[in-house]
Specification:
heterodimer; A: 741 residues; alpha+beta; Immunoglobulin-like; 4 domains; six-stranded mixed beta sheet; 26 helices; elongated; B: 190 residues; Arc Repressor Mutant, subunit A; 2 domains; globular; disordered C terminus
């Protein structure tokens, strides 16, 4: 406000005059203003008058303050009681958020103030209004003698509190720990975080232990104990709800919902069960067909829940997404193929009569310099809901990581959408990083969400700058609150699909917790031939946008399908672990019109089968049906029974811009390898699958318990921080399980 | 200070003001719940990090929760970022207490006029005025709480003050009123 030097510009009706009078101006500005006012008696009079009125206003408003409302004693006590309950919810992680984001919080105050993510609060299943009122009255009718330090809580009060409490536990837990410990840490903090993890694990076991031990930490033990008990009971109930949920066929679309539901709250009943793949008899179903899936969101989800002190709901656990989260050492493809195929077979660790087959695909890696020129359009949601440190500030940081890797031949544009949309950065070469970074810094959240408008504009910019043979991609950064505007969700999907065909792909970066529309984000990314990543920390951003930038940006094969044909002379039955929502019909394999998953540069995809060889008496072999009366038993099996091949893996895929698929076939030979002799990756992947099965309450994990998972994972995790984090999670699950007993 | 003590202190110091603020926009039961939740969130924050800003932080958190509640009930548009006429009202009319008979007549008249004028402020103005003069927040803090820019807060308070000044001067001299209230009425007052 340098114009304050000019007395003519500075008049009576100037907000700065009011600001000055109220002591809101600082430093130089205040000094200059004071000078001006000293010179001008009219201004001086104004200031005095403002101050006088301010005093009166203050007084007038404060007259009401005699009637300042207060929380009732019981209401106040609820706050303190809940802190005990939430202690287990990893309150410390929450605090760490502040540190982790410190760097991105230049506008510290404003940004910090905007912290709350209210969707979560809303997501908390509130008591019904009537019920709530009753609770309230009950609370207010309590004897006022209840002292905050030594509550003599009545039976009724305790019951009431327990009730109120039980309505909320999951979201509290989630709210309490938006991030897993290690995840949270910006690099240097990693170790400290692990320490935190250990100590909090201790808290966990206290909190999760049977009621009596809760008093250890409790200034309010009676009600705390009671509450703990009740909320556990409630959890148990919802678990049994899950168990009761019928295991029938669920449309794939519905299954998608489960992820979103789990994000919101543990006891939300809006998820659909995953129906675990069963053992299939080779003579009935010699073919097993599915689409690849490079998503890893379920692992992040499971991690978050465990860190929050909760065993994940079985349907939150997608085993393939857990296994695929990790890096494996796999050979680079040869012969110009987009990916390599590796198979390994060993004895099954959990059912020794069985074998474990691992099929691993590895997308071609290339140095960043060899990557085709990119035409990237960042489509950034700057609506009001993004104003949370885990959203826009994190998105800004994440996108900056991407910008840092850009080269002169790459172009970046930024389109924002809120109430209206706008191109805030015209296509700018990777050479002018500063300009791009500055544009990102200027992004501010506010307004509503016209997602569709933004999407259209982003596509338009991408098309205008289309690079033939290059990477043309819109990268959407949003919290999932993607208002579809005037047209339907279906219309938007068609738009995305159409643009994907024309060569502009879409990737989706999700931010923030309580992501209601997570399933929609997944759908959009799938239609757009891109990845949907869920970014909840700087570390996850680095994983997705730096370590795996190639995979996120550069799709190298699309519609990748696998089909296994088992040899009935060698294999009695088989079971695919995970991929339940990715199963395809056998005839879809050769149908190029059937959409399937994409593989990006450097991506790995792992599938694990458990195999029952012929001649083995297995506890889990499918029940035999009666021999068919009107059909002769199939004789095909004998046709090639001489082969020592167990099976053949067939793959179909298309080039990113192709319409016709290629096919690869890889036969797999018999093996007598024990589990201990198998490769490190094989054993680690098995430990993750085993962990997933245990979390899912699968009946197929045989001899394995968390102890074996831990042992195997620990032995195969050195030198890999993500694997080490997994080991920590297993430990946490173990202590949670112990606490439950 | 450990976090339990800190929380206790915070509750003691701010619970009343917070409840008063939130109760203006939602019913008492919801307000109490919002206040409880705000303190729980505060407790999860870093004590040092927030030092000196606790009250503003609490107001910001509560305000957003209240907005969300109103949106949920359909009393505010999906995209609303501040309270409007339909959401303020019941509470605000009740909370202003009339001056007591002990106070001298002139003063009482003046206060009554001011209170009357306060009720006529646009919801946004009233909110920032209350944050400023009742809760003692600075422009910066108000900006952080409401999401308005600091200069916007300045303009709102300036406008409100002009209107309030004109009302206050009614009892003294009617001369200035016409001019200032004409300017003030541009602020979209009823």
């Amino acid at each position: 406000m340098t114009d304050s030097r000019d007395p003519k510009i500075f008049g009576v009706d100037d907000p700065r005059l009011t600001a000055f009078a109220l002591g809101e101006l600082e430093g130089e500005e205040a000094r200059l203003m004071a000078q001006e006012i000293e010179k001008d008696p009219e201004l001086k009079k104004q200031v005095e008058e403002i101050r006088e009125v301010a005093g009166d206003v203050r007084e007038a408003i404060k007259l009401e303050s005699q009637a300042t409302p207060h929380l009732s004693v019981a209401e106040r006590e609820q706050i303190f009681a809940k802190t005990l309950d939430r202690k287990s919810a990893g309150a410390r992680w929450f605090k760490w958020v502040g540190f982790a984001f410190a760097g991105s919080m230049a506008l510290v105050f404003v940004g910090y103030m905007a912290m709350p993510s209210f969707q979560r609060f809303q997501a908390v299943s509130r008591p019904e209004p009537a019920q709530h009122m009753a609770d309230q009255q009950l609370a207010e009718n309590l004897p006022a003698a209840v002292d905050s330090n030594h509550p003599v809580a009545s039976q009724a009060e305790m019951a009431k509190r327990g009730q109120a409490q039980s309505a909320q536990p999951p979201a509290q837990l989630l709210a309490g720990s938006p991030q897993a410990p290690a995840e949270l840490a910006a690099d240097a903090e990693g170790e400290a975080m692990l320490e935190e993890a250990d100590s909090s694990l201790l808290d966990q076991s206290i909190a999760a232990a049977p009621p009596p031990s809760a008093k250890v930490a409790a200034p309010m033990s009676p009600s705390a104990v009671r509450m703990g008990g009740l909320s556990r009971a409630r959890e148990a109930k919802s678990d049994s709800f899950a168990a009761l949920a019928p295991g029938r066929g669920v449309p794939a679309k519905m299954k998608k919902e489960s992820r979103a539901a789990v994000d919101v709250a543990h006891n939300t009943e809006a998820y659909s069960p995953i129906v675990e793949n069963e053992f299939k008899l080779v003579k009935d179903q010699p073919l097993s067909t599915f689409s690849v899936d490079v998503d890893t969101a379920s692992y992040a989800n499971v991690r978050r829940l465990l860190v929050a002190g909760q065993m994940p709901q079985p349907d939150a656990v997608r085993i393939e997404e857990m296994v695929n989260y990790f890096k494996y050492e796999l050979p680079q493809p040869r012969d110009g193929r987009p990916f390599s195929v590796t198979t390994e077979i060993s004895q099954s660790p959990w059912t020794p009569q069985h074998q474990l087959l691992r099929i691993a695909l590895k997308g071609r890696e290339m140095p960043a310099s060899a990557r085709p020129a990119s035409n990237l359009v960042f489509l950034v949601d700057v609506s009001g809901s993004m104003e949370d440190p885990t959203k826009l500030p994190l998105a800004r940081r994440a996108l900056k990581m991407l910008v840092d890797q850009m080269r002169a031949k790459d172009k970046i544009s930024i389109v924002v959408y809120a109430s209206s949309t706008g191109l805030v950065l015209p296509p700018t070469s990777g050479e002018n990083k500063t300009r791009i970074l500055e544009a990102l810094d200027r992004l501010q959240a506010g307004g509503s969400t016209n997602g569709e408008g933004g999407l259209r504009q982003a596509y338009q910019v991408a098309e205008e700058n289309f690079i033939k043979g290059g990477i043309n991609r819109v990268i959407l950064a949003t919290d999932g609150d993607f208002n579809v505007g005037v047209s339907s969700e279906g219309g938007m999907q068609r738009l995305i699909e159409e643009k994907a065909k024309s060569g502009v792909f879409l990737s989706v970066l999700g931010f923030g917790m309580g992501n209601y529309k997570d399933s929609m984000m997944q759908t959009l990314a799938q239609k757009g031939n891109g990845v949907a990543a869920y970014i909840d920390s700087v570390r996850e951003a680095r994983r997705v946008l730096v370590e795996q930038a190639g995979g996120t940006l550069n799709t190298i094969a699309k519609d990748v399908k696998l089909q296994l044909e088992f040899n009935p002379a060698q294999v009695q039955s088989y079971r695919l672990i995970g991929y339940e929502s990715r199963m395809l019909a056998a005839e879809d394999f050769n149908d190029d019109k059937k959409d399937a998953g994409e593989i990006g540069e450097g991506h790995t995809v792992t599938a694990i089968y458990e195999i029952v060889p012929v001649g083995v008496v297995s506890p889990v072999t499918s029940p035999q049906v009666d021999a068919l009366k009107y059909q002769a038993a199939s004789s095909e099996a004998t046709a090639v029974s001489g082969s020592s091949e167990l099976l053949t893996v067939k793959l179909r895929f298309k080039k990113p811009d192709g319409d016709v698929s290629d096919k690869i076939e890889v036969p797999v030979q018999k093996s007598t390898k024990s589990f201990g002799e198998a490769s490190r990756d094989h054993r680690f992947a098995a430990s993750v699958a085993g962990f997933g099965m245990i979390l899912r309450g699968s009946k197929h994990h045989g001899d394995w318990s968390l102890a074996q998972v831990l042992q195997t994972a620990s032995a195969t995790s050195s030198g890999d921080e993500y694997r080490q984090e997994f080991v920590e999670l297993v430990k946490r699950a173990q202590s949670l399980r112990q606490g439950q007993r | 200070m450990d976090s339990a003590k800190w929380l206790k202190t915070m509750v003691r110091e701010h619970e009343g003001a917070l409840l008063r603020y939130v109760s203006r926009y939602v019913d008492r039961a919801t307000a109490a719940e919002i206040v409880q939740e705000s303190f729980l969130r505060l407790w999860k924050e870093d004590m040092q990090e927030l030092q000196g800003r606790e009250k503003a932080w609490l107001f910001c958190v509560s305000r957003n929760m209240a907005l969300d509640q109103l949106k949920k009930k359909g009393q505010l548009g999906k995209d609303a970022e501040s309270f409007d006429e339909t959401t303020v009202g019941v509470a605000s009319a009740q909370t202003l207490r009339s001056p007591t008979p002990e106070e001298d007549l002139d003063r009482r008249q003046q206060m009554a006029a001011l209170q009357q004028a306060l009720r006529q402020l646009a919801p946004k103005e009233e909110e920032v005025v209350r944050l400023k003069f009742l809760e003692g927040f600075s422009y910066k803090e108000i900006s952080a709480i409401t999401g308005l820019s600091v200069s916007h807060v300045g303009v709102l308070i300036h406008q409100a003050m002009k209107f309030l000044r004109s009302s206050a001067s009614v009892s003294m001299s009617g001369a200035e009123v016409a001019a200032s209230s004409a300017a003030a009425s541009k602020g979209g007052r009823p």
